[in-house]
UniProtKB/TrEMBL annotation:
Boundaries of every Major facilitator superfamily (MFS) profile domain copy: 39-433
Superkingdom of source: Eukaryota
Keywords: Membrane, Transmembrane, Transmembrane helix, Transport
KW Transferase (keyword) present: no
Organism for this UniProt entry: Acanthaster planci (Crown-of-thorns starfish)
Residues passing through the membrane, by range: 38-61, 73-92, 104-124, 136-160, 172-192, 198-219, 240-262, 274-297, 304-323, 335-353, 374-400, 406-430
A UniProt-annotated Pfam family: MFS_1
Name by which UniProt lists this protein: MFS-type transporter SLC18B1-like isoform X1
UniProt lineage: Eukaryota, Metazoa, Echinodermata, Eleutherozoa, Asterozoa
A Gene Ontology term for the protein's cellular component: membrane
Keyword Membrane: yes
Any one Gene Ontology molecular-function term assigned to this protein's record: transmembrane transporter activity
């Protein structure tokens, strides 16, 4: 039995409350681990199902829309309206997260996205072509608002709950989104063949709502007192934030540019439908693996600028070879395309998660404390840059290919990446010589404004 000596040299047994202290600490540690696991699982499921709702219409909606009188341009605008709404609303959600609670924003956003997906299944019953078009836009815009709230809060929750592993947790989040993009069209097509227009939306929308219901029970609902909104003005005054947003936007312009034009190019090289599908699968898998690898690297080494620069230059090489560029005088071959696609995806993965971690490092270097307000703003700006890239990429690539052909289109995209790479290099030199100087590696971030117990759960309010 543990004992202690009194002033009279007598032995007294330790009080029960003192002897139980180690057990209390062990119990609190177990609770912390459970909360973190529950948070990650709920965030992963929410991300996966919410992004399924974005990609589910890719296979069958264009044909149905054409039958209802939509032109190809209007169909493209319906797809882009989702990203427009998400891009505009993401920084707003990021600023509001400390006020409304990240958990509430996550649940409410996923609920809106799932409900809109179910509602989209009813537009086939619209009496006129005009109402069909109008409700297509209205529902996709509202769905973009909900999905952006879900995505922004998820990124903030993961960055706040795993401050020592921001890169790794965000890379797994991006992997879930990438898998959803790959699975969504296939799942939508199969469900459409099985039950018609309504079934894909009812099934996948129901899956999102089921995830919301499960998250209500398992996602931690502990919180703290109300805090001020995020310091968006202070963050936007940091030059490095704008450079990172440029890199993110360029990355997703390049990645989504491949979707409307690559399949046609592969067909000219006599790839079968199965071969094209496998190459697109290779693109997604290489990107997913790359985000995990580079997320782990930047977590351990904090070499965000180096990774971003190497990824940007790798994208330059990849797009020049993918065409291949007419200036290279290389004959396009199936082997060349098969080698370039995974290389390009792995390079672009270097420009996805590291910029977010770099923005957090820069904000702390400029004196902004690491808390939910900061990670909310950073995640909102990151999601805004992603949405802008996803909106611009397909339209730009389609227009360039129509006007100039695939080879010149990829050459121009490569030149865009080259310009971003030069900006990164010159900015790094300027920051070192004229700006804030060389930044030390980021230590594990701490926020003195909340307790250790609050760190293990979400800064949120129960809905």
């Amino acid at each position: 039995m543990t004992i202690r000596m009194t002033e009279n040299n007598s032995e007294d047994a330790v009080l029960p409350s003192e002897s139980a202290a180690p057990n209390d600490e062990s119990s609190e540690k177990e609770e912390t681990t459970f909360h973190k696991k529950a948070t990650f699982v709920c965030a992963a499921l929410g991300t996966f199902t919410a992004w399924l709702t974005f990609s589910v219409i890719a296979v069958f909606f264009p044909n149905e829309a054409k039958a209802r009188g939509m032109s190809q341009t209007v169909i493209g605008l319906v797809f882009s309206s989702f990203s427009v709404a998400a891009g505009i609303s993401s920084p707003i959600w990021g600023k509001l997260l400390p006020l409304i609670g990240a958990r509430f924003a996550f649940l409410a956003g996923a609920f809106v996205a799932g409900s809109c997906n179910i509602l989209f299944g009813f537009i086939i019953d619209m009496p006129t072509d005009a109402t069909f078009t109008a409700f297509s836009f209205a529902i996709r815009l509202l769905e973009g608002l909900g999905s952006s709230a879900c995505a922004t809060s998820t990124a903030a929750i993961l960055a706040y709950t795993f401050p020592e592993n921001v890169g790794m947790s965000m890379s797994l989040f991006e992997t879930c989104a990438g898998v959803a993009f790959a699975v969504g069209p296939a799942a939508g097509g199969l469900l459409f063949e099985a039950g018609g227009f309504r079934v894909p939306f009812f099934v996948l929308g129901g899956a999102v709502l089921a995830t919301v219901g499960a998250s209500c029970f398992f996602m931690p609902d502990h919180g703290s007192e109300e805090k001020q909104s995020g310091p968006i003005v202070q963050v936007l005054k940091i030059p490095a934030v704008w450079v990172c947003m440029l890199a993110i936007c360029a990355n997703f312009i390049g990645f989504t540019a491949l979707h409307p034009i690559l399949s046609v190019h592969l067909e000219t090289l006599d790839f079968s439908v199965l071969g094209r599908s496998l190459l697109f699968c290779c693109l997604g898998v290489s990107y997913a693996v790359g985000t995990v690898v580079w997320g782990y690297v930047v977590d351990k080494k904090k070499c965000t600028r180096t990774v971003i620069s190497l990824g940007t230059f790798g994208a330059v090489i990849g797009f020049f070879l993918l065409g291949p560029s007419p200036v290279l005088n290389i004959t396009p071959t199936r082997v060349l395309v098969g080698l370039v696609i995974p290389f390009l995806a792995f390079a672009m993965a270097m420009m996805t998660i590291p910029p977010m971690l770099d923005m957090i490092i820069s904000a702390e270097w400029y004196g902004i404390p690491y808390n939910m307000g900061l990670v909310g703003i950073i995640s909102g700006l990151w999601n805004m840059a992603v949405s802008i890239g996803m909106m611009v990429g397909p339209m730009l690539a389609s227009w360039l290919t129509d006007c100039l052909g695939f080879g010149y289109a990829t050459t121009i995209i490569a030149c865009g990446f080259l310009a971003v790479w030069l900006v990164l290099c010159f900015f790094g030199a300027w920051e070192y010589r004229c700006g804030k100087g060389r930044r030390p590696p980021m230590e594990e971030p701490k926020d003195d404004s909340h307790t250790d117990f609050e760190e293990m759960v979400l800064l949120s309010k129960a809905p």
